[in-house]
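The passage that follows is intended for readers who have already worked through the single-chain material. We present the inputs for a multi-component assembly, then the predicted structure in tokenized form, and finally a short commentary. You are encouraged to pause after the input and sketch how you expect the pieces to fit together before reading on.
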Amino acid sequence: MTSFWAVLSATLVKDIRLEWRSKDALNSMLFFSLLVVVIFVFSFDPLAEESRHIVGGLVWVAFLFAAVVALNQTWARELRNQVLDAYRVSPAPSNALFLAKSVGNFLFVSVLEALMTPLFIVFYNLHVLGPAWQLIPIALLGTWALVVNGTFFAAMSLRTRNREIMLPLLLFPISIPAVLGMVAGTTAVLTGENSAHFYIVLLLTYDVVFTTASLGLFGTILHAE
Amino acid sequence: MNAVKFLFAAYVATWVIHIFYISTIVRRLSRLRQQLKELSRGK
Amino acid sequence: MKRLFPILSIVTVILLAYALYLALVVAPTDALQGDVYRIIYYHVPSAWTAFLLFFINFVASVRYLARSKPSTETAAKWIAIAIGVVGFIAPFLPPVRKLIPAGMEPGAVATTIVLIPVLYFVVGKLFPGDRLDVLAVTSAEVGVVFCTIVLVTGPLWARPVWGIWWAPGDIRLTSTLVMWLIYVSYLLLRRFSSSAQTQMLAAALAVFGALDVPLVYLSIWFFRTQHPQPVIGGGGTMDPRMLHVLLFSWMAFLLFGFLVCWSRFRLELLRREVEQAHAMESLAGAGVSSATSLPLSRSTR
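Having made your guess, compare it with the prediction:
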């Protein structure tokens, strides 16, 4: 009987290795992220007084779009080689597959965020007025919130007619409380005007609820026929 | 009074939406009944 | 049964007309807002109806998911019973009683919570098997219609009263908007996925959507407390005459909504029947014997 962790790590390593070898998706994603930041810089004047208040929103919108483009890629590769059917037939626990995909996506999106963040700092002359360390849990929890639901909905959209547009259509409405949490939390830390504490708790709650729901229902999705 | 315009608009909008939706149901129903008739005739 | 629908339709029209009369003529004019406030008699009943329908969708989706395995079905049944028992007793216990917001009776809270398992079992009894899924799509679609009306009448009410079309911190309207988005995405998923998996996928999405709703509420509520909001008049008790008109209006709209759902339900059954007939015809065309009819639930091809 294949163990949960064995399947998880094997799938994860495979994905990372594939991504690293081809570098196609990674390169185009990196460039896309850069473009998004530049578009924002031209659309929202960095020198304006209010820029500190809106940068939190800009950053997370940029991350959101990058995440959607990245998520669309990851399942498409599985489909191409009928890997998904192989998973369905194998005795491997479907949760392991889901978790592996989610973690892989999380790493991928985090790389993109790590690229975009210094760009935002530079272009918008950001310095943090509140407790900067709080940005770390916000970033981690927020990214996971987007990725865990994104992976789940990407799997759902696989067999729909308009696969690429279906993912954001499903993901955005459900993500609204998380996005509110990420943006408000980031803004709170950047401006130092109020506490991000509640938003971190909100993001944590959101992550727990939806990670559980995704793990619980992924098997149903995978085997739905 | 100006404000009553909005009251009127709200009530009208409500029924426009409801009537629109009901008409889509009616339209789909009649189309399906016709299809069913054609199918049974085809047998 | 066939004659019931036209009779109920006539009754509904009469009730709606009378509700309109009550709303425009009988209900007293509001001291602060004047006559514009009468939008409430369409806005609020639509909201309550929409939420009820979305809740029915949730219950139907959960039941539909649960029936895939006997173990989950039993588990869901016991969870529903537990909710009912706890919900019936808890509001009356002192520590819980303190948490109930002012103005709400513990009895009312208890009754509302008990409705959850009641609905669970009623839905299961009345809509066996695949009919659960038909109920799900029906309640979602009609719910979206009523929700649209809430989102249209809301700003139309806000503009003359508050001076703005939309207040971002208005927790009720904003969370209604998110619910509308969630259920529209649910309907889009149903439309765009191939029919074999649609039902399961949609049920899963419905569960996600329902889980999201309290989180939406929580996030907006806290956001509001941290940001100055336009002072919105409201709260406080309602004139009992207004309350009566509101409740009557809701009753009329509920009956109306029920009839619309009934029609949509029948439409969906007919649509599936035609789909099956098409399928059988293509099978017959391919030379396969069509002596046995296909079961309503899909089997793997």
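Commentary: The mean pLDDT of chain B is 89. Chains B and A do not touch (no CB pair under 8 Å). How closely did your sketch match?
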